[in-house]
Amino acid sequence: MNTFSEKVVKILAVALAGGGLYLLAAYEHGQRESIRRADVVLTPACIEKLARYGLESGEYYQSPYVLQRTGAKLATRGYADDDIRAIKRGCNIIDDTQGKLASDPDRERWNTRRFIRGTHTACRHCHQSVGDKQDAAGNRLVGSLNLGASWTMADMYDRFTGLLLPFELRQMQCYINSSNGYKPNIADDVIRDVTSYSRFLSVALDMKIANRYDEQGIDEIPASATPKQGDDYVRGEAIYRQKCESCHGPQAFGRVDPDGRLVAPAIAGPNAWNMQSRNYFYYVSTILPGFICRNMPLGQENTLPNQECRDIAYYLSNLPRPAGDRQGPIIALRQQVLMKVLPPLLRATGSARGKAAAAKSDSGE
Amino acid sequence: MRAPELALKYRALLGQRWPALSRNLVVGLTLALVTLPQAVAFSVTLAGVPPHFGIYAAIWGVFFCSLLNPSRVFHGGPNTAMSASIGVTLLPTAPPFGAEYMGLALTLGLMAGLIQLMFYLIRPLGRILDLISEPVINGMICGIGLILIFRSLTTFAGLPLNTEVEWPLWIAWQSFLAVLEVGNLHAIQIGLITLLTCVVVQQFDPLRNWAILIGIAAGTLYSQHLNATVGLQNTLIEQIGNLSSIGLVFPSLPLFSQESMPDVIAILPGAVTLALLGLFQTVAAMRRMSRKAGGFTDSRKAIFSDAVSNCLLPFLSSLPTCASFNRMWLVHKLGIHSRIAIASSALWLLLLVLFFAKAIAVIPMPAMAGIIMLLGANMINWEDIKPHLKSRHEATVFVASFLSVLFLDLFEAVLVGSALAVAYSKWQQAHPDISLRGDVLKIRGNLYYGSLPIIESIYHSALAKGQDVIIDFSECYYIDQEGIRWLSGLKARRQAAFVDRRTGRDRRDDEAAETPGSDERRGQSRRGRKQDRRRRSDI
Fold it and tell me: What integer pLDDT is reported at residue B523 of this predicted model?
């Protein structure tokens, strides 16, 4: 039987713990609110992108892009100052996810680093040109993962999981698998701001819901779109050495300048996407080849034949990378061991084999 | 007897029994209110089926189990792990909430029920479930308690649930940070008021059984006050919502069409997992809680009750049922061990959804989350943990089960904990206490194929020293066939003499005859005597 004092202590302990939690939450909410109201310092790419699309507060918004392309003066509802700041923060997150250009990365990027395990990942690596890739003439490119088109075509049944997948949940999948990290809560500003930016892009590009846009997602390459030679690891390695190694490094672990600036992100190893990402060839075999063909090598897009893209993707997916979050701790441990053990082994054995394959490929055999 | 007299007699009887009955009914109502949000959450967020699946499991699943299972603490109904397992199994086959998916969910439940029936009919299969030891169960209970707290964090702060599977500890940490940074402060206020009211009321013994109901009422009143003053559009508090479409029963048929056969075959391994998941939890929870309540129920009866219920429930649009650790803990904490209380919880829930759907609809989810957190905290009881920490073996098994729940899942926790417990017991059996004093080799423990190499090594080292060895079995309580053959070999080669001090006779003279009367004088059990006689005759 509890004594009276024990009961009072119990009540006080619960009251203090609960009150402390509430006060801490109120303080954190205050901090968030101050960040939401603070001016946003844009990254160079975002300054260019948002200036080009004429983002300003006002009662109406008119897209200079649409005016230039079609001559139509389309006026849509304008943006308040809060909206403008959210769009700017969203653009910054896409361009500089890890906050390397920010003076206070965690505050200015809503702690995105907390949701990403590696040090390389940024949204713009897949969603190039801040989620809106165009050619010199301003044409949007097929299969370029355009964020405006993704927002317009979101809220559809996902064909891989059969789930009705809102744009916010799709972002969470990016954090879990493509960034090999943890998903933020769906109500977090980090998700809301990226949605704001994507929605703005769809307005600036005059995209309409219920339409289908080729620039959304990936232009997938199935085996049926190749001469049906079969995907080949050795051929893939040889092409990788020729076309990709100079940027992504000999083991595809990415390349970082001596001053810490990221030259090219990892596409294998601990900083890359995990084994449950749709980029992983064994999980979905059509997406990574599609990305490679339409977006790589930078400046020479659409130059690789379909079969070569599939070969490179096949090769890359055989390199060690982190396990997915649903594969359990044993596979995660196995992958961690492989990522430690395989690189020195590959360095010792792979270079000679790779050079021989490249020489064979050059000689046209 | 005239009608007025009969009425008076029954009134008197009711008057006599009313205090006990009313306590049962209050506990039933509390259980019904605690089960309701779990039923809705498990079916929608975990299993991918509409909420009435979970609610019917909480009504008919609980009711069938209370009729079929003689345990006074058993509370069935929807279960977290089973619901999650249904979602994971069916995800590749059809889109959730669709007609085909729901049909396959019912098929999966029926197949699991039939597999469970097999566990009842084939007795050795059912006995496997008894290999779950107490440290495993307590480790699991503590793990589940923590998981309940973690899982409720987001609902407590009015945030959407994280529905995808991730490692629970990472989810918990991210959820805690999300509560602080982006949680709904109104929701946190409601959750805290509910929690604090509950804790305060629990301290008054006459009101202890009412604590949860009073807590929910306080949270609901505060939520209604906020909605009236600030407006629901500003508070954005999630409520249980409208359940008025749910009726008495909703008949259904599992999907077994010719077109669905490939899918049915594909989900068969999932059905085996589901069946085992349910049975392991049922047997473990029932044994633990029955012991706490000072009773005993044969686990076969629980297997039978689960199996029959799960064969019936797919025809009533219901999720499968199995024991719920947290609700059984609540039954125990409320101090009422009675099947009436448990059956009444099902009937209360039925009445609530039939007649009070509008009142239930306004109960705020943060208040329910606060209650579930309190239940989780109550499941971690130092008095239950302390005894396991006294033995290194038990502590290891306890910690392994606890961590497995947090890092793996419930099913794997049972496997890891049980495997460790069995391994430890085998290790102990394989290492009998052997002492060589003078020429007497005394064996305390088991003489079987596992311990034989150790005994042999000491025996041969003694022989090598040129000693005559006498093997003393006085404290040897089990010898298997391999041990008997070894001893027979020694006897045949005249390499050793044997002694069993329990008989009071030196057995080196090869006289094995023994009168039954001397056995009785020693007061040995019948089984011990039988083994003893067999051992001697073999030697």
Answer: 43
Residues 86-105 of B with CB under 8 A from A: 91, 94-96
B174 Cβ under 8 Å from any chain A Cβ: yes
Domain positions in chain A are: 43-204, 223-362
Per-residue b/e over B450-470, b at no fewer than 16 CB within 10 Å?
bbbeebeeebeebeeeeeebb
Q: Give this complex's ipTM.
A: 0.76
For residue A165, the chain B residues in CB contact (below 8 A) are: none
Whether the pLDDT of residue B321 is over 90: the answer is: yes
* Assessment of whether the complete model's pTM goes beyond 0.80: no
Cβ-in-10-Å burial (0-12, 13-18, 19+) of A111 comes to: middle
CB contact under 8 A, B192 and A328: no
Query: Is B180 part of the contact surface with chain A (CB cutoff 8 Å)?
Result: yes
Q: State the nearest Cα–Cα gap between A7 and chain B, in angstroms.
A: 6
The rounded distance, in Å, linking the Cα atoms of A319 and A321 is 6
Strands B469-479 and B496-500: parallel
Concatenated DSSP letters for B186-240?
HHHHHHHHHHHHHHHHHTSGGGGGGHHHHHHHHHHHHHHHHHHHT-HHHH---B-
What pLDDT, on a 0 to 100 scale, did the predictor assign at position A358? Answer: 53
CB pair distance less than 8 Å for A187 and B160: yes
d(CA B179, CA A25) in angstroms, rounded, equals 7
Task: Give contacts of B164 with chain A, Cβ < 8 Å.
Answer: 172, 176, 183, 326
Say which residue, A259 or B319, is predicted with more confidence. B319
Looking at the partner chain, which of A11, A25, A325 has a beta carbon nearest the beta carbon of B179? A25
Phi and psi, residue A61, nearest 5°: -125, 135
The highest-level CATH class for domain A43-204 is: mainly alpha
- Domains parsed from chain B with CATH numbers: 15-421 (no CATH), 431-538 (3.30.750)
A223-362 and A43-204 share a CATH fold? yes
> B408 and A328 in contact by Cβ < 8 A?
yes
| pLDDT of B519 over the 60 cut | no
Q: CB distance A162–B95 less than 8 Å?
A: yes
**Is the pLDDT reported for residue B164 higher than 80?**
no
Residue in B172, B87, B62, B61 with CA at minimum distance from that of residue B405: B172
For A18, which residue in chain B has the nearest alpha carbon? B192
Tell me how far apart the alpha carbons of residues A25 and A17 are, in angstroms, rounded to a whole number: 12
If we measure between CA atoms, which residue out of B168, B129, B133, B135 comes closest to residue B152? B168
Choose the closest CB to A22 out of B166, B174, B188. Answer: B188
Q: Name the CATH topology of A223-362.
A: Cytochrome Bc1 Complex; Chain D, domain 2 (1.10.760)
B200 contacts on A by Cβ (under 8 Å)? 11
